[in-house]
Amino acid sequence: MIMASNSPFAPKLGTNYVPETDTELAEIYGYVAKDVAALTVLQREMSELQTKLDALQSRCHSLQASIDAHRALASAFRRVPEDILREVFAFCMPDEPFALIDAKQAPLLLTHICAEWRQLAHSMPALWSAVHIHGPSATSIPPSTAAFPPEVVLDWLEHVRHSTMPVDLSVVFPCNIPDFWVPVMHRLRRLQLILEPGAGRQVDIQPFIDATAAELPQLSYLKLQSDRDRGPQFWPNASILSLPTLRTVALRIRADPLRLPLPWAELTSLKLICNFTATSIAAVFVGGLSVSDALDILGRCTNLRSADLRITRGSQFQQRPAVTMAALEELAISHGIFLPQFLNQIVAPRLRKLMLEPKAGREDEDKTLLLRALEPHAPNLIAVDFIATLFSTDTLIAFFPLAPALRELILRHTGPGRPPALVDHTALEQLTHLQCPLLERVEFVSCAAFNEWEFGAFLKARTPTLRTVVIDFDRPRLFDVLQRLPPEKAARLHLDLKYTDAYIATYNPRARLDDL
Q1: How confident is the model at residue 297 (pLDDT cuts 50, 70, 90)?
Q2: Of 491, 485, 444, which is closest to residue 461 (Cα–Cα)?
Q3: What angle do CA 417, 420, 425 make, to 5 degrees?
Q4: Can you give the pLDDT at residue 508?
Q5: What is the DSSP letter of 377?
Q6: Higher-confidence residue: 301 or 103?
Q7: Strand-pair partners of 75
Q8: What is each CA distance from 182 to 171, 208, 211, 214, 336, in whole angstroms?
Q9: To the nearest whole number, what is the mean pLDDT of the chain?
Q10: Distances from the Cα of 488 to the Cαs of 397, 432, 460, 497, 511, in angstroms?
């Protein structure tokens, strides 16, 4: 903005006018000189005022610092009784089974506040009874070093060494801290062992692999991950797998799962990713998990409540007697083949959550056959996670009335190729007005084929119960649906919407100029 109302040249300012005479130039220079003098006076006054303002701000900062320091002395939190502070410390611990050795998280963070808090935290073994320990990476070149020195781990475990409470331990091998677990081994309740590729020193893990019930009397939770092929006899002879106290087991190993010495009948949670293992005969492999093997394993696990099985070996489906799983509540099958036949052999009256992921290339199996196999299980289901290619739009619409108690519906397309237009306006209309009245969470990943108007109508109709909506659209956004919802309904919803970028043609003036 140009302030020059008293200038004889005001109408010409900001234009392309060129002074025609020396007289006009002299007038312009004279006017500028007068304004420069006035500007100098103003800048001097501003400098004086800024000096006063800086002094006032400095006094304000000093007073505020004094006020804050005195208020801190009178803080109610300083007077919190120790028993309450212990509860606060326990509440600060992460939800994960294993705490991280991280100065930005509890429990280490609690020791960096003051000496009193540090002393209290060190006196609470419960804060230090679970830890995740990783050594130098065997997969990076050059190998990375540990994120913390060994002394930190030893000090951590020292806080629980003389207590009687159970200990939860997660270790990534190779580990640069030999035998650190020995003082607490007999109290291990949860154990997770991750063997990175190249972690070849078998002596590191052998004390765990050979552990007996006398050495691990409390172990109920075991997770093992090792992609190294140790031969067909290694894991079947691992005594740690036969501990009678095991209840939760997750294995990612190379083995024949049917030969593992697990206490199958006692397990309540099982996750298996068992790949092939080589034999002494060239090009001959054994192990892996077929669909029929999965049925055999489930038949052994009479008390199982949660099962997560990855099919790693293809074979013809071999008929098995029906398997009754009276306690089974959650079932996940990934890389599956013969899914209808598998589901037909399962009797699970308490099944509540179901995840099905077909093997790549088997998506075109009979969708009507799968729908019929789902029918006995659907009435009690409250959460499903399906790969979208398992259904057509018609079979999906037919599935909705079979599952009236459904609260969580996840449909995903994760493979290559064009995403299927599975959830179109007809399927969404069924969910809008008729089916699955208890839905709380909906997730459509690369399979949504409805527009924003239809989506908005769905949200308006379902917000009394709907809480979370996650959708990946394979198209650009037409408009913001959330802005068109009533504020009271929008406030209840958590929306996570993703769109592909629109294609915008651009002009290239050199187009085709240099083709030849």
Answers
A1: very high
A2: 485
A3: 155
A4: 72
A5: T
A6: 301
A7: none
A8: 13, 10, 12, 14, 41
A9: 88
A10: 30, 19, 11, 19, 52
